[in-house]
């Protein structure tokens, strides 16, 4: 029996260790796996599993063990897991078959790429931030034999130019850009996938163009309401991450701490570039240090990249100061009726600090027709195992719907 075969229905406590020295050179200490949905009538505690190399890595990575660096991640294969109706494993890394730049205004040019099946069902990936840009790993949520996978960098982010530019950079500009890209690629309609800020933009885009959206996958719901901004940037999340909060707080003098969004906005738009960079690094590190349930050092290091941090922090702050350019605090919830008919899955980490579950819950209550998946042992990042599994499964479900409808 493998851990994947157990699925989420078995939630007892297992002690996993190796009986074979061929798995690793030095056996690791025992791992204790806790499954939060445990049925207390089950009596499998103390059951010892002799697991293969991949399952050992699941234990190690999921619970922070730093063992052999070259063990293969459970989600590398892209093959269907035993006992599960849908594939839940990330697909292998692929390269784009076409890339380009699209001029969307007198100022802005956006980078785009396509990978997977050129004749497949189109899906557009909306990255987070705003200002985060895309990454090659974003392609792995989609079956490359079925999907025509479109990634693009939003205005000012990633490879798009001009870098970190705030001029003519609003939610509505981005929605227009998505439509321009769809028409440029001659796509009649497409599936939309977005996490964090990408979920915000996906909701706004689909509400503006519901006839162009075949399905939605949303992760780490962010509705850009005042209480969400205050929670993360004005001291709420500091109750959980006080050590990460203090460097973010301490960059701002005490007499300006009544509103950190405004104080950072002043510095991120300073005439002095080093002032901009210092503020951008502090802003980005605060977010990266809180994005995973368990600390992720590689993610935190992104805060040291001045180019990435500047776009990420400046554009995020710009959107937050302007309340997402929405006409009301509840704009996205108020317009759910426009997209209620679209097949949708909402994926939310229970312990998401960046975009706490209250927003996903509010969206779920307003939109009960959408599938609602809460990952019990995850934070915010799409790269956490449980969240990645649900995202792949959501795409697989939409893939089957398209196949069955003959579209």
UniProtKB/TrEMBL annotation:
Belongs to the peptidase S33 family. It comes from Acer yangbiense. Keywords: Aminopeptidase, Cytoplasm, Hydrolase, Protease. It is found in: Cytoplasm. It is an enzyme of class 3 (hydrolase). It holds the Pfam family Abhydrolase_1. The lineage of its organism: Eukaryota, Viridiplantae, Streptophyta, Embryophyta, Tracheophyta. InterPro entries: AB_hydrolase_1 (IPR000073), AB_hydrolase_fold (IPR029058), Peptidase_S33 (IPR002410), Pro_iminopeptidase (IPR005944). NCBIfam families: pro_imino_pep_1. Its main location: cytoplasm. One of its GO terms (molecular function) is aminopeptidase activity. GO terms for cellular component: cytoplasm. Residues 122-384 form the AB hydrolase-1 domain. This is Proline iminopeptidase. It catalyses: Release of N-terminal proline from a peptide. Its EC number is 3.4.11.5. One of its GO terms (biological process) is proteolysis.
């Amino acid at each position: 029996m493998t851990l994947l075969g157990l699925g989420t229905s078995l939630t007892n406590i297992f002690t996993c260790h190796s009986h074979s020295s061929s798995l690793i050179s030095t056996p690791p200490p025992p791992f204790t796996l806790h499954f939060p949905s445990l049925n207390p009538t089950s009596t499998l505690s103390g059951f010892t599993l002799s697991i293969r190399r991949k399952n050992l890595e699941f234990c190690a990575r999921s619970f922070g063990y730093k063992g052999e660096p070259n063990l293969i991640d459970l989600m590398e294969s892209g093959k269907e897991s035993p006992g599960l109706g849908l594939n839940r494993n990330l697909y292998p890394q692929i390269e784009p078959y076409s890339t380009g730049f699209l001029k969307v205004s007198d100022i802005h040019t956006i980078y785009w790429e396509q990978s997977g099946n050129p004749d497949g069902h189109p899906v557009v990936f909306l990255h987070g931030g705003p200002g985060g840009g895309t990454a090659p790993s974003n392609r792995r949520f989609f079956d490359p034999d079925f999907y025509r996978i479109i990634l693009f960098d939003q205005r000012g982010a990633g490879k798009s130019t001009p870098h970190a530019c705030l001029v003519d950079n609003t939610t509505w500009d981005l929605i227009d850009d998505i439509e321009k890209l769809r028409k440029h690629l001659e796509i009649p309609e497409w599936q939309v996938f977005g996490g964090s800020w990408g979920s915000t933009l996906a909701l706004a885009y689909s509400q503006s163009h519901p006839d162009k959206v075949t399905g939605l996958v949303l992760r780490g719901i962010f509705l850009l309401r005042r209480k969400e901004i205050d929670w993360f940037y004005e001291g709420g999340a500091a109750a959980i991450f006080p050590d990460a909060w203090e460097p973010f707080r301490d960059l701002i003098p005490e007499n300006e701490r009544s509103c950190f969004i405004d104080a950072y906005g002043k510095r991120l738009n300073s005439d002095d570039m080093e002032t901009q960079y210092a503020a951008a690094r502090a802003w980005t590190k605060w977010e990266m240090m809180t994005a995973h349930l368990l600390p992720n050092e590689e993610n935190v290091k992104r805060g040291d990249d001045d180019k990435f941090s500047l776009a990420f922090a400046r554009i995020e702050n710009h959107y937050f100061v302007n309340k997402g350019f929405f006409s009301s605090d509840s704009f996205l919830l108020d317009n759910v009726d426009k997209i209620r008919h679209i097949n949708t899955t909402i994926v939310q980490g229970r312990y998401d600090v960046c975009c706490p579950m209250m927003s996903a819950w509010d969206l779920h209550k307003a939109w009960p027709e959408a599938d609602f998946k809460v990952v019990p042992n995850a934070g915010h990042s799409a790269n956490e195992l449980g969240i990645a599994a649900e995202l792949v499964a959501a795409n697989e479900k939409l893939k089957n719907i398209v196949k069955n409808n003959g579209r």
